[in-house]
Specification:
The protein has 360 residues and is of the alpha/beta class. It is 38% helix and 12% strand.
Length: 360
């Protein structure tokens, strides 16, 4: 087993993403949740199954009471220095389902970082008071650095990456996979499906993470539809080629819709603009989904979006049976609860409660 405590930060930084994976997990579960690459098919299936069991248990008062007793002795810190609504709230709800007490820092201007404290020292401070750190930052690699730092301290508590720069957003990818699992559970599962990604694919960390996770499924074809300036990066293309995944690049949304099983829409990520108004100069009108596009979809196709949205999906589409993005958002709460339960080895007690109470 590879240990973060056995490697220097410089040596660890130099590793490829795939080479880093063994340092984030052991044989049967995650130690930290940092990159999408650390989840194989077996872990994705297990997390999806556990999320469904939690969702069903939580429907009753007695079931919710049992869930909330599991981690009532633990505390979680939500360190969100980058703006967030859905990710922050779904992690709050997931922690509350399992009974964790919560602390939060959402504005570093009112923390000791304003006084010049390093982020390393802030993380060490959080670990003194909490049993889990869930963090979101505009700084790429910060979650990875925090996992290494704490693994080399006397308080090696787990770190969950809730969004790190433009690099990764692994738990968004988990909820996306869970949504696809649920959407296709009576239609052969995810294997063999065609997923069409649309919009700002170059800077969309949700797309990057989901694209990697989809390689765990058999014969999934990926299509990336975007203007040239926002097309998926060569690094993701290289991963797909290395894993033998069929993929294509396109700038014609309407031409790609009839063969799509899932359409993953994204907004323009103008928060990453390097110059003022950079994104505004890109014409995205041909990469929007409205009522006129609905008839182009096959009956079983689904539309996803990590939200928030702008003009890329018309609100009129919300009422279509193809639209699953509101369910997708709620699924984030269940899959994150499953992930946290697994981190703290409470997955088996949840399964035992489900079976012993005959829950369906």
């Amino acid at each position: 087993m590879a240990l973060l405590s056995d490697i220097s930060w410089e040596a660890f930084q130099a590793l490829s993403p795939d080479a880093k994976v063994p340092y984030f997990r052991d044989a049967d579960r995650e130690q930290h949740v940092i990159v999408a690459q650390q989840f194989d098919r077996a872990r994705l299936d297990a997390l999806g199954d556990l999320a469904t069991r939690i969702r069903r248990i939580a429907k009753t008062h007695a079931g919710m009471d049992d869930l909330q007793s599991l981690l009532s002795h633990k505390r979680a810190m939500l360190y969100f220095s980058q703006p967030s609504t859905r990710t922050f709230l779904s992690f709050c709800a997931a922690c509350e389902i399992l009974g964790l007490k919560l602390g939060e820092v959402r504005d570093t201007s009112i923390s000791s970082e304003f006084k010049g404290e390093t982020q390393d020292d802030s993380i060490r401070t959080f670990s003194s008071y909490f049993d889990l750190i869930i963090m979101r930052s505009q700084i790429g690699g910060l979650a990875e650095r925090s996992a290494w730092l704490l693994s080399n301290s006397e308080r090696p508590i787990p770190v969950i990456n809730a969004g790190s720069g433009k690099d990764q957003h692994p738990t968004q990818a988990l909820l996306d996979i869970y949504t696809l699992q649920r959407s296709f559970e009576t239609n052969g599962g995810i294997d063999g499906k065609r997923v069409v990604f649309v919009g700002d694919l170059k800077r969309g960390r949700t797309v990057r993470s989901l694209s990697v996770l989809l390689t765990q499924y058999r014969d999934v074809e990926q299509c990336f539809v975007a203007p040239d300036a926002l097309q998926i990066g060569e690094d993701i293309q290289a991963i797909l080629r290395a894993r033998g995944v069929r993929f294509s690049l396109s700038d014609d949304l309407r031409a790609e819709l009839p063969a799509a099983d899932a359409v993953y829409m994204t907004r323009v990520q103008n928060e990453w603009d390097t110059t003022s108004g950079e994104s505004a100069r890109i014409d995205i009108s041909a990469f929007c989904f409205g009522e006129a596009e609905l008839p182009l979809l096959k009956p079983s196709a689904v539309i996803l979006h990590p939200l928030p949205r702008r003009e890329e999906i018309a609100t009129a589409v919300d009422h279509s049976p193809h639209a699953v993005y509101w369910r997708q958002m709620r699924n984030g709460m269940w899959i994150r609860a499953a992930l946290i339960a697994t981190l703290f080895r409470k997955d088996n007690p949840i399964r035992e409660y489900f079976e012993s109470n005959g829950i369906e």
